[in-house]
Design goal:
Helix 4 packs antiparallel against helix 5. It is globular, with a radius of gyration of 22 Å. Strands 3, 9, 13, 14, 15, 16, 17 and 18 form an 8-stranded mixed sheet that branches. The longest helix has 23 residues. A hairpin with a 2-residue loop joins strand 16 and strand 17. It has 9 helices and 18 strands. It has a single domain, classed as Cysteine proteinases (Cathepsin B, Chain A, Alpha-Beta Complex), CATH 3.90.70. The termini are far apart. With 344 residues, the chain is of the alpha+beta class. The N terminus and C terminus are likely disordered.
Length: 344
């Protein structure tokens, strides 16, 4: 019987040959396929998005790891992204990165949630990188600063604080949605009544209130999570609802002055261009992840593990949803227009 290591090496060789042929046929402009080891499709799709986030790749390139960082998640991520970038027809290895995640309790053989893995990787960068300045710059690429807002409707007293998101969680309806409406809904104040009432120090009791977020600042890379998984009556289900999303997103045209914090950082350009779509196919508890990636030449490509092909924007729009047969967009990554985007 072959050893697992030998079998994996031979499997990897076959994958490299297949990937090389696919790349030659489709002209993938530097994209490289990633073999699915077990249930690694989630990580594979995220790696394609990280590779397309050149601001993050540039920051990792500046990093000089110390000895004690060997085997860390950010170091293995950097090695994998370098290999993907320098691909020259001999395939790429990300087995070490997968095993590093596995050692940090992101199992290779369990269905993972892409948003949870994405946030875990960003947290590992903060925790494990000795260069805290660079780690902070990587976090700031995705950091949406918000003011948490709570107003007692009985005495009008306002409680506020600050927080941040690395990926905005957007609620979607079971009917049709537009991304713009989902963003507006996120910033709408919600009424808290009954069992959801909060304690007001001024009133000395639980009272009805209004709760929500007000925007302070937007990042160079805006990550949006379409909350398609919902718990209802003890069951977990996936919403296949249609969510239309544009190639170009203008935040200033979506949000009103009422949802901007007094500390809002005015930006000369709040326009974003879509460059990655993480797609989920299947049901809530069992499925498959793929990705649409836009390269610097503005062409779109579809990455399904080790299969890469060039696609049109019309094909990307198939990820809007509306049908249980098709994959649906689960994460969207937008980049602020280049004239206003800087990794620091």
């Amino acid at each position: 019987m072959k050893s697992m290591k030998r079998a994996l090496m031979e499997g990897s060789s076959l994958s490299r040959i297949r990937c090389c042929i696919l790349r030659f046929r489709s002209g993938t402009q530097g994209l490289v396929g990633l073999r699915n080891y077990g249930l690694s499709c989630c990580v594979n799709a995220l790696l394609q998005s990280f590779s397309a986030t050149w601001e993050m790749v540039d920051l990792l390139d500046r990093w000089n790891p110390v000895d004690k960082e060997n085997g860390s998640v950010p170091l293995q991520l950097r090695k994998t992204l370098v290999t993907m970038r320098d691909f020259s027809g001999h395939g790429t290895h990300h087995w070490d990165f997968l095993h590093c995640l596995n050692r940090h309790e992101i199992s290779l053989h369990i269905q993972q949630d892409a948003v949870e893995v994405f946030l875990s990787i960003l947290n590992f960068i903060q925790q494990q990188m000795h260069d805290k300045t660079l780690a902070q710059k990587i976090q700031c690429l995705y950091k949406v600063d918000v003011e948490t807002y709570l107003q007692c409707t009985k005495c009008s007293n306002i409680y506020s604080g600050t927080s941040f998101f690395l990926c905005l969680p957007l609620t979607i309806r079971e009917t049709q949605n537009s991304l713009e409406d989902c963003v507006r809904l996120f910033f709408e104040l919600q009424e808290l009544r009954g069992k959801d009432e909060c304690y007001c120090e001024r009133c000395g009791e639980k009272t009805p209130s209004k709760h929500g977020f007000k925007l302070i600042s937007l990042p160079p890379v805006l990550c949006l999570h379409l909350k398609r998984v919902r718990n209802s009556g003890g069951f977990t289900k996936k919403l296949h609802s249609q969510v239309s999303f544009p190639e170009t997103l203008n935040i200033s045209g979506i949000l009103t002055a009422e949802v901007l914090s007094k500390s809002y950082v005015h930006q000369s350009d709040s326009q974003y261009n879509l460059y990655a779509v993480i797609v989920h196919s299947g049901c809530a508890l069992c499925g498959h992840y793929t990705a649409y990636i836009r390269q610097k030449d503005t062409s779109w490509y579809y990455a399904n593990d080790d299969y890469i092909k060039q696609v049109s924007w019309a094909e990307v729009q198939n990820a809007y949803g509306g049908s249980q047969r098709d994959g649906t967009a689960y994460m969207l990554l937008y980049r602020r227009t280049l004239k206003d985007c800087s990794s620091g």
